[in-house]
Protein 1
Amino acid sequence: MKKNTKTRCAQNNRRGEILVAAAALFRDKGFGASTIRDITNTVGIASGSTFCHFKSKREILDAIAIEGMRQVLLGAEALERRRMTPEERLRTLMRQHVGFLHDAPTRDFVTVLLYESRELSDAARAEVMVLMERYETIWKNCLRRLAPAAKGGIKESLLHRLLFGALNWTVHWYSPGADLPPERLAEELAELVLPGMKDGSGKALS
């Protein structure tokens, strides 16, 4: 029994190594330009060994996208269980989101999810969409409490898309050495958007 457990652990570790290596390659070279040989060379395993864990390169991509979205959702769900003000919750959601985009190891997974989604299988795309909808609901609930739709007719559905667009676009221009650390960057971005969600007294609308 112990031998079987060790074998399963080794298989899971190898599967994880393949995903981490593939995510980095897909992010740097693109899914289309990366090969199975590139992945096996990076992991340091025999060519063809990936087929013990995945049937194809696309199946590897599917697993990366699902795992990336799952990690993002888990972070937001953990945050949702904590007691905090709507403003604190939004700040933390923004820090988490930027962190997932720019901090290892999720950085490669989430970036690949964002820019290789057209290459996903139908089944994987559907699973990612379910996870994404749950994630977006957490953001919408936060924004609904922070900036009700009554203010200027702005709806949380528009606000969350606006914020997602701004945050996700940072992958195009962010430079680790030249720009602020991800956590500080998120704080600066929060300072830009929060004033528009407050009343004349400076208090968050609720």
Protein 2
Amino acid sequence: MADLGIAKVTELLDLLGLVLDAHQPDHSNLNAIRMAGETASVSYKESLTPNELILALATGEIPSNRAAHFSTLMDEAPLSLIVSSVEMAALKTTVPTKQIWKHISQWTRDFQPPRKCWA
């Protein structure tokens, strides 16, 4: 299938009676840290707790028994959820968001997730 472009997609959606509604997700009312921990833990027996996630984001140090969880987080969590988690961790600690992103950057070098956004 060829690349459609937005005009053709809009026409197709109109034909189907659908509307494209793109907006920024609002995680301000949600507990992004909890949701990120649940996303990272979906395939594992033990869960990544909110405190473990906040501490790892703040320090850059991943507990050895949670490495697989963080690999899953980097590979499978929606990017908007990761962004919200970084913001929430920065609010709950004294660590600036820029430093937390440096930690995540190091994790992506360590784990080499297949997502193109981390390349």
Protein 3
Amino acid sequence: MASKNETATSNGIPCKARPAGEIRKKLTKPTDSKGRHVAASAKHPRYLAESDKSGAQAAHRAPSLHEIER
């Protein structure tokens, strides 16, 4: 399972180059992020990940994140 500051890559991107970044926060309640609603809960958390390349943040489900070695 993902944890804060863990290095991860997103599997939700339909291309071969998957963005790498760090998990910044575990979201366990519904919230709004960048004008979008994130339907997080304690049972179904989302993880706020920050891209290494662009610095952009996005919320992801745990199954779409994979730990990578650096």
Protein 4
Amino acid sequence: MWLVVWNSVIRKPSANIQRLLFLASCFIIFFLIHFAIFADINLHIMFHKNIKLIIAGLIVATAVWQFTESNIGNGIFLLLLTAIPIFLYFKNEFILLAFLKLRKQDFEGAKKWLAYIKNPEAALVRKQQGYFNYLHGIMVSQTNVNQAEKYFKKAIELGLSMDMDLAVAKLNLAGVAMTRRRKLEATNLLNEARKLDKQNMLGEQIKMMKDQMKKI
């Protein structure tokens, strides 16, 4: 008798209730993602990077719940959805948008997106901090050599994912060293940039700078 009563108390929710719970959890997850982006852009509140991992964890927990309820399709969908916050944890959205603006030579647009990152140490993983400095270095390289040098050195210290980006940073530092008549330093940086430039995309610029150094 007690077993019957207990089973009636903890009986499985109806299909409609489960569907409502699933939709509610999806709404909360999407709300968290969109609120984080809205707050970054419109309220200038930069969330800690770990918030994205917490959102991913909530999605995984919801996916596990769906699997236990035999809603395999919902669970798979949610697991795929976790790729978004995890990807944005390692590749910050504002860094990506700034890169897109730079590809179009829109320096003001790139500067605008980077300005949303108020605290790089809290908002970005180490290599993304490197790119934060790398992008700033590119933007000020034509107007403020001293500031560009600091940015590029910091970017190399923090690390960059692509050899090509490292080559560009070293090439710019070689240009700074050359303007200050530090010939040995400039030569070493150019040689390092040439080794990193495996596709020889910077070959002409490196050759031109080496020719200029002969006149120093």
